[in-house]
């Protein structure tokens, strides 16, 4: 095929005319139209002869004789796709010779922007542009220019590139705008790599010189937004087109990396794949850039330079501990001596407290003493910021490396004022449990002034299984001086009592006797001891509470002794009842529970208590222990008490025949209420009917009696 639009089209036209002459012998007037119709109908290149008119189907046998068509798998196809596209375009032009004008379906579809490339009919569309270019250039150019719009240029610019590259639209004004669109795309950092590569290819096919200049600009004039990865792509594209220029760009890129740390490192590796020397330079550049951070270590590892790696590992500022640790592992494989020297410096400048311990564990297989020195410095970092758990792990490592130093290291950690109590106790316990050493470190914790009393107690209790006497003794000692509250003190003593009751009993007894100790706590302590001391001691403790504790606790203490069926129980309750400052109701209840030991309180309350109902209850209880005094108290209430029902109940509480006399007095007392007099009368009637009738008749005749009461009495008298 010859160059230029006319050359390409003339060649296709020559092929078509040859086929037309071959078919003209049968159909001299319809051969061209027949082929165009077939091309128009054959969307995938397969000729739709069956759907053609009968007259045209008759010609199908001659199709394969002219070289334009071939038979494959029983199907007739165009031998060349471009012939089919050209004939299909001719079919459209024959029907629309004035080009893509108006709103016809053909006009609307022509050169319409698509979302994907290639277009399904891009070959036909290209020939339409070429065939319509002369008769309808303004309309075609207007349509094509739309494809360069920002909204449509991706991917439709590729159609324009194809037209321009094939020179199908000569003398157009679209070449430069298309090149500008492609140049702009090469500097668009938002494009993904695949789309960017497509635009590079398109520009190279359209104008290789401009493409080379732009690729060079991407590499050498990149701003901060263009990463090394994109710039490396530009280098590769340049190398494919102009190796000398590409190598120059490669050298520039190696010395001027941009983008993220990962991107710069990845690009340096790519450069090395293309050129070892330039790749080494690129990696060296990255090692020296501080803002590369951890990737500096990766670059030094890739270079295999122990000196650079050692400098980065020992630097006080720079890569993270994790990156430096990774570098140290690699350095050990490259240069063990340099690595061991760097390890101790790294441990001294590490940011994280656990890093030195990791370093010690890493170098231990290569140098025991270096590992021991690092672990020792970690374990003995005795300040408030030191991590106790890390120190403990360091101590364990010391013991693994040098067993003879295990116990001394554990001792030092247990004595550290800056170690947490949990770690200090764990260290002290390990001396005993793992190394079978003495308990002095644990005892020291239980008595140390800087240790909180609750932690002291935990330390003391930790040896209860192996040294119960020492454990209990320490707890008792802690209870005497440690807890700020009596409740805390009692809690520690309980722990001691469970281990060795003999040592704790005395202190708990003193707690019960303490007058300044809260009554409920004293009672709890006495209850706690009751199962482990004799009855006499228990009663004595409850008696102490009765005499010196608050009223409620005193009563509960007396109740405890009563529940023991001990003879002192009621006596103690009597002492509770004898408290003159307590409320009469409380004293009465205690006196009733005290039995004969409550007599004095009952006597006082029966004559001087308030209200009269309480005097009645006291007198009723008193009469069981002092018949004379109780009767006297009841008779006084019969004579005068409020409400009147108290007089009735007092009368009924008198012994023997005294009840009848007392009720008679109430019935005859004009100062008493009517209800009480009627009630007393009927109660006498129940005991002595004769006297009762006499009292009823007299009461019914009293002028102050209400009609209702009079009617009731008269009714009962008539029965």
From TrEMBL:
This is HEAT repeat domain-containing protein. The lineage of its organism: Bacteria, Bacillati, Actinomycetota, Actinomycetes, Pseudonocardiales.
């Amino acid at each position: 095929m010859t160059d230029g639009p006319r050359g390409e089209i003339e060649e296709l036209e020559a092929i078509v005319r040859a086929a037309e002459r071959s078919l003209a012998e049968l159909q001299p007037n319809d051969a061209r139209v027949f082929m165009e119709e077939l091309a128009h109908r054959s969307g995938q290149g397969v000729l739709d002869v069956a759907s053609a008119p009968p007259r045209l189907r008759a010609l199908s046998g001659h199709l394969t004789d002219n070289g334009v068509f071939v038979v494959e798998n029983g199907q007739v196809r165009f031998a060349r796709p471009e012939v089919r596209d050209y004939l299909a375009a001719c079919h459209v032009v024959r029907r629309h010779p004035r080009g893509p004008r108006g709103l016809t379906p053909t006009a609307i579809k022509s050169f319409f922007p698509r979302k994907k490339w290639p277009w399904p009919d891009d070959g036909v569309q290209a020939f339409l542009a070429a065939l319509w270019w002369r008769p309808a250039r303004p309309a075609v150019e207007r349509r094509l220019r739309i494809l360069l719009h920002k909204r449509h240029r991706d991917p439709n610019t590729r159609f324009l590139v194809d037209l321009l590259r094939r020179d199908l639209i000569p003398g157009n004004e679209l070449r430069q705008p298309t090149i500008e669109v492609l140049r702009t795309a090469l500097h668009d950092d938002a494009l993904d790599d695949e789309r960017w590569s497509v635009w590079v290819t398109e520009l190279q096919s359209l104008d290789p010189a401009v493409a080379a200049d732009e690729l060079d600009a991407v590499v050498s004039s990149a701003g901060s937004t263009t990463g090394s990865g994109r710039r490396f792509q530009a280098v590769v594209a340049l190398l494919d087109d102009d190796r000398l220029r590409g190598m120059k760009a490669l050298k520039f890129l190696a010395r001027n990396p941009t983008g993220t740390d990962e991107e710069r490192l990845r690009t340096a590796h790519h450069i090395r794949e293309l050129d070892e020397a330039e790749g080494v330079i690129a990696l060296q550049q990255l090692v020296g850039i501080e803002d590369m951070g951890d990737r500096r270590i990766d670059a030094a590892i890739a270079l295999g330079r122990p000196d650079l790696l050692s400098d980065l590992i020992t630097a006080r500022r720079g890569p993270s501990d994790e990156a430096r640790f990774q570098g140290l592992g690699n350095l050990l494989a490259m240069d063990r001596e340099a690595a061991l020297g760097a390890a101790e410096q790294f441990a001294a400048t590490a940011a994280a407290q656990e890093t030195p311990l990791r370093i010690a564990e890493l170098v231990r297989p290569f140098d025991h003493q270096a590992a021991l020195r690092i672990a020792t410095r970690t374990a003995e970092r005795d300040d408030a910021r030191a991590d106790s758990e890390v120190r403990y792990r360091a101590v364990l490592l010391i013991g693994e490396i040098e067993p003879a130093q295990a116990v001394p290291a554990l001792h030092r950690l247990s004595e550290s004022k800056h170690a947490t109590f949990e770690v200090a106790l764990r260290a002290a316990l390990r001396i005993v449990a793992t190394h079978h050493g003495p308990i002095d470190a644990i005892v020291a914790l239980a008595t140390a002034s800087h240790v909180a009393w609750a932690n002291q107690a935990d330390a003391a209790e930790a040896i209860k299984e192996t040294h119960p006497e020492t454990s209990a003794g320490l707890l008792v000692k802690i209870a005497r001086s440690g807890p700020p509250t009596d409740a805390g003190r009692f809690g520690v003593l309980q722990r001691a009592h469970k281990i060795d009751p003999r040592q704790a009993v005395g202190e708990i007894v003193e707690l019960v006797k303490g007058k300044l100790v809260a009554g409920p706590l004293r009672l709890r302590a006495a209850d706690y001891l009751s199962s482990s001391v004799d009855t006499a001691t228990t009663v004595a403790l409850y008696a102490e509470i009765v005499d010196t504790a608050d009223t409620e606790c005193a009563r509960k203490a007396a109740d405890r002794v009563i529940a023991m069926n001990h003879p002192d129980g009621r006596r103690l309750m009597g002492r509770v009842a004898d408290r003159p400052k307590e409320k009469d109701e409380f004293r009465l209840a205690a006196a009733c529970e005290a039995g004969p030991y409550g007599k004095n309180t009952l006597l006082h309350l029966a004559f001087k208590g308030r209200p009269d109902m309480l005097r009645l209850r006291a007198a009723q209880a008193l009469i069981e222990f002092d018949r004379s005094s109780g009767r006297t108290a009841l008779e006084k209430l019969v004579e005068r008490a409020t409400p009147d029902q108290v007089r009735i109940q007092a009368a009924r509480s008198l012994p023997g025949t005294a009840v009848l006399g007392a009720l008679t007095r109430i019935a005859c007392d004009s100062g008493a209420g009517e209800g009480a007099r009627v009630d007393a009368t009927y109660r006498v009637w129940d005991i002595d009917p004769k006297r009762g009738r006499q009292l009823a008749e007299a009461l019914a005749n009293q002028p102050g009696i209400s009609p209702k009461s009079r009617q009731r009495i008269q009714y009962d008298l008539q029965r």
